[in-house]
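Hi Y.,

Following your request, here is the sequence exactly as I used it, all 1005 residues.
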Amino acid sequence: MITRTRLLAALLLVGAPAAARPQPYDPRLRWLTLETPHFQLHYYAGEEALARRTAGALERAHELMQPFLPWDPGRTQVVLADNSDDENGSATPFPYNTIRLIGTPPDSLSELNDYSDWLLSLSAHEYTHILHLGRVSGIPAGIDAILGPIWLPNAMVPSWLSEGLAVLHESGPGHGRNASALFDMYARAMVTEGGLFPLPEVSNLPLDWPLGTTWYLLGGRFLSFLCERYGPGAIAAFVDEQGRWVWPFAIGVVAEHHFGGKDFQDLWREFAAELAARYAAQLADVRSRPVTAPNWLTRRGAQVLHPRWAPDGSFIAYWDEGLDGPQGLRRVTAEGQDLGLAAEVNADGTFALRSPREAIVAIADYYDYYWFYGDLYRLDLETGRRERLTRGERATEPDVLPGGEFVAYVARVGPGEMALKRLWLSTGRTEVLFRRAGSQVYHPSISPDGRRIAFELQADGRRDIVVWEAGCVAWVTNDDAIDTGPSWMPDGRLLFSSDRSGIYDVYVFDPASPDAFALPEPAPPAPLSVPEPATFLSLVPPLLAPAEPLALAPRAPVPVVPGRVRQVTNSEMGALEPEPSPDGRRLAYVSYSRAGYDLAWAPIDESTWTEARPAGPRPAGITYDESPEYPSHPYDPLPTLRPFYWLPTFGWDAAGFTLGALTSGADVVGLHSWALTLSWSFGTASPVYDLAYVGSWLRTPLVADSNRYVAYAPGLTGVLEEVWTPLRVSVLAPVRELYETMTLSFGWSGTFFRAINPPPGALPLRNGFRSMVSGSVSYSDARQFVNSISNVMGIQATLAGGLTSPALGSDYNYALAQAAFNGYLRVPWTEQVVLALHLSVGTSQGDFGGQVPFSLGGVPPPNVAQVLLTALGFAQTGAQPDQLRGYPEGIFTGSHLTSGTLELRFPIVAPQWGISTWPVYLRRISGALFVDSGIAWVPVPEYAWWQRVRLGAGGEARFELVVGFVLPLVVRVGIGQGLGAPFAPGHPHDPYAETELYVTLGDAF
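Below is the corresponding structure, written out as tokens. Let me know if you'd prefer a different format.
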């Protein structure tokens, strides 16, 4: 049942960005606030240097963006936390301007890997959202002046538009996703291997690779296309007019006013033609030389990364994150024979092979509940057994010499800082080998003799391959290309991948002599500088024409290993992460197609290698004050805890029509959040309300609420009941892993029950006060994947109980307990056909005063709370509402309950159908056949409980919609037939059985 308390919890999540992730930050942190002219930057003790640098980046972003979107959004709240190894950020103008930044640099092959300064890119991207989404004027501004910022037309546009505008302005010239050869590879494969995704698919939630990344990939390029064709003023004018429209979904009409009289559908077709012409010319240049055609080892698509040869050459291991199953390490032979999943490995997945059976793997998971960190494990590929090697090290990208005694790896060693480290396997001792403030290191590779470590170094806006030996570091490459993924050949030469031609290909570095790497420790390179452009518009290289080059300041000399660079592959899409076989005869690498990344191989044939083209110049980044002197003070939650909006509400209770308002609030860090709905019940001429509070300042979150509502008295036709809970309070003790959660709760509630206008005479319903202590434990490891129509594996389980007694001050005296179980099993030899099982049992004993603890019946109609929870995607863990389809809603009541459902769920079609940029989109249709059983009963001598069990059966269609571009909504249309009580003596006719047609929202369980 969707309870009022859960509706209030949803309002907390809707009304307060900080509450959208319960307990997002460790409550032991001491928060501080930096005051800048345009931002309040909240950070915790230990992040001071990164916070000041972020403040400088934000103010620089404001300065550069103001000429493009010239309006003042007021003071923006920014929360900076280095609490995750997964780089990210978010921004919202509701209920107040808020930016959240995760203070960690991107990974080597992240979609964000093309950057000059990762922090400025992140800050500029998110601040663009504030200037765009919050831009409002005209009638919407008048509505917001009364209700708060609830009608924001620019925030109700497709994600490709909002994310594309931010990508357009996220970086300096020659950097960012619009300039990225990695992103260009995505677009090239899409356009040349099937054509650009249709605009309706891009406008909603795509099911095809690269999934939500499509918004950034095509949105950024499309906005650049519009900017080049119609000028920056046209985009700014579009944003301004869109912010005045009362109906926010008519973006195609607004586009016609600013982009040559064409709507977005016409512009999209022209954009597709421009891209096709561009990539045809690019591929013609590639094909002017012999092309390296990939010999595919896998065709799984999505993300197949990190190939590693077994030391004996018997297989190649790789990490797979597909669309149909769990992430993990898989193996394939050199001939392409799939050896299957060796071990499930969730998140990160970088690894190295110490032997054919043993891997050293980095796995990211929740650390101490609040922190998402990577650590190293020793993994047995035959048994899947793992042994932890580090704890809280924030370790990734390990490499190990076969049979070797140490592991080289990358570690995030402080807010925004990275280092090359070494772990001795025999002792567990770790040491820092290389660290440079403000620089990033990636992808270490140990030389065959164990003396040297090659790695990527991002410094001063450049990504080069460098080599470490005995405390000394020397540059192997020293240019403006992005050079990645170094790997040693058996003879001591270095392979790596580079985007120097505009397409990632494999290159080889031949040192001039065996001792060429033995160079003295270099002095740090001097920073680069270029004249700074006036606006962010000039930071975007044109999509379809070469950008005007910018002059580079000379780079300070660095110690460079003498040698020669040659091109090994000449690929049409890309070649990344080269890995030579132990015998030096084959090259395994990662290539790309429209379906995503896959593993390929090519023979190592020096006769096909060519001299490498020199890398073209890449402009340096934008400078800003990285240590501004802004004042700092302890964090105060009160200014952002007040209500910033309110909404009128209406509905019905058991007595009739209700009218009221709702509001909520949360401080920006998320220590406190609250929500309130207050309504007038016209049927009883009295107020009804819900008030809820979540306190995340405790190690165990505190949840409190109070409510009053009017309901039908149980078992009494026409009699109403007032249910008033002055206080319900509980504490939670959650346990969290990436795909496994458990929550324990314990609480107390006090509730008054009172019959309203009861008829004359005695009532079985007794007025009184219930003082109850309760507790529950819930567990879930249920999983679903991109192509899943529901959960396809795992279980959900809940055990809950309560006790009320005069000893607790209660007028009632009873105890109850309920257990529920959901299980999901993929049908063998299928990907997405699922058997789903739901079981629930409940029991109680004592004096209920007429209250009924359990009920069972057909599917209830949709209600406002259910719509809200379903649309916002809040998955419910453990027991869902018990249902017995084919019977009236709630028809069976009693002190005991048993319920069971078995469903066979199957996909039907994935039409991904929509019209242009209309805000309704049909993604998938699936079906289910079901059998329901159960009964809620009060024990009677003449019948055993199992003789009273009812059955129902039927089928339903499930329509997966997207509403408003981002809100998933599942509509279930079904028919259930009551089958009576088959175990009752004599099989009597069941007067309650019926044919039930229903339409409802959300999964059955």
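Residues 510 and 588 are 19 Å apart (CA to CA).

Thanks again,
Q.
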